[in-house]
């Protein structure tokens, strides 16, 4: 494909791209990562990214970890009281056939089988979720060199979350940073560093393995439930503790398959360079490394269970919904200990 013609109008500030896009939707002459990256590591057409680190060996090992038979959900309730970024519409749950229809003898059934039914409408990033690799773009380019134009109003032709519907099952590890620091929650502007993450792992006696799904507990979710009014809850979205830019190398070095946190942004907000770049950690993690990110996870019950067991590793089963063209997915992550 040749570069698009310019339809620049007065004051539009738009210039035509200098790159080209091939029939396989790969960009030539455009953005190329300058730092650590996984482009081409698993082939030019790869759409799994760092989830490739989870192989048969990693899954088999993870299935040996449950000892107590305890099951823990890491998902928020999808209801009005739960945190949801203001930019995303609230979920709408509606009942199409109810029990009151039955008791009022509403003639909607064709047989003597009486049932109830309902529907749901929500933002894919409006609760506990994974970001798809098509979620973040740098200079018109997505992970592994795919063109941003492959994501349109009908969804993503490549890098959609549906590619991951049979993944996210393996060894999960919890880095309980709030516990390590001796606080119920970190200050909202705390920037996590590789040295701190390593110190937490060492203190917990935890050795990271290739293919781990790393969960970060900052205490931000615990803090949410203490907020008393709408103004405080809105302010919760203005700052968040999380990884800084230096952690990109840490994730790459440890061959982490995916990572999630108990905050709204995963990374530190406002971060190191709020004046020049928004979500600067999202960009290299998702676009350069091809690493899925999870946000709004509930980790407090898991933290208590890990402390009781003195073991911060577990079997984690957290696949997204099978949404073939979606840019993210809500989910109910399950831990078995």
Short synopsis of the structure:
With 337 residues, the chain is α/β, with parallel strands linked by helices. The protein is 19% helix and 18% strand.
Structural class: alpha/beta
CATH architecture of the largest domain: 3-Layer(bba) Sandwich
Global outline = globular
Rounded to the nearest angstrom, the distance between the terminal CA atoms is 52 Å
Mean pLDDT: 93
Q: In the CATH scheme, what's the topology name of the largest domain?
A: Glucose Oxidase, domain 1
- What's the count of strands? 17
Return the domain count.
Answer: 3
Characterization of the model:
- The chain folds into three domains: 1-30, no CATH class; 31-82 and 126-336, Putative cyclase (Glucose Oxidase, domain 1, 3-Layer(bba) Sandwich); 92-121, no CATH class.
- Helix content is 19%, strand content 18%.
- The protein has nine helices and 17 strands.
- A hairpin with a 2-residue loop joins strand 7 and strand 8.
- The radius of gyration is 22 Å and the shape is globular.
Task: Jot down its keywords.
disordered N terminus, 19% helix, 337 residues, 3 domains, globular, nine-stranded mixed sheet, Glucose Oxidase, domain 1, single chain, alpha/beta, two-stranded antiparallel ribbon, 9 helices
């Amino acid at each position: 494909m040749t570069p698009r013609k310019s339809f620049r109008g007065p004051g539009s500030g738009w210039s035509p791209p200098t790159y080209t896009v091939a029939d396989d939707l790969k960009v030539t002459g455009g953005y190329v990562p300058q730092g650590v990256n996984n482009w081409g590591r698993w082939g030019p057409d790869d759409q799994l990214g760092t989830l490739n680190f989870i192989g048969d060996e990693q899954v088999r090992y993870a299935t040996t970890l449950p000892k107590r038979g305890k099951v823990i959900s890491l998902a928020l309730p999808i209801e009005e009281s739960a945190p949801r970024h203001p930019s995303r519409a609230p979920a709408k749950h509606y009942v199409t056939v109810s029990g009151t229809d039955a008791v009022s003898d509403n003639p909607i059934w064709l047989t003597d089988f009486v049932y109830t039914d309902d529907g749901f409408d929500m933002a894919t990033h409006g609760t506990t979720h994974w970001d798809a690799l098509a979620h973040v773009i740098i200079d018109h380019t997505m992970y592994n060199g795919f063109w941003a134009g492959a994501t349109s109003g009908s969804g993503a032709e490549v890098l959609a979350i549906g590619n991951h519907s049979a993944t996210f099952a393996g060894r999960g590890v919890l880095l309980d940073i709030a516990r390590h620091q001796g606080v119920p929650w970190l200050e909202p502007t705390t920037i996590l560093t590789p040295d701190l993450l390593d110190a937490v792992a060492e203190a917990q006696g935890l050795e990271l393995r290739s293919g781990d799904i790393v969960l970060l507990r900052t205490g931000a979710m615990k803090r949410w439930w203490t907020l008393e009014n709408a103004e405080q809850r809105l302010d919760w979205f203005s700052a968040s503790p999380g990884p800084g830019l230096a952690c990109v190398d840490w994730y790459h070095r440890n061959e982490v398959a995916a990572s999630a946190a108990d905050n709204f942004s995963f990374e530190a907000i406002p971060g190191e360079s709020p004046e020049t770049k928004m979500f600067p950690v999202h960009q290299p993690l998702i676009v350069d490394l091809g690493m899925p990110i999870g946000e709004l996870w509930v980790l407090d019950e898991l933290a208590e269970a890990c402390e009781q067991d003195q073991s911060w590793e577990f079997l984690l089963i957290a696949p997204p919904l099978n949404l073939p063209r979606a840019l993210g997915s809500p989910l109910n992550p399950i831990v078995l200990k």
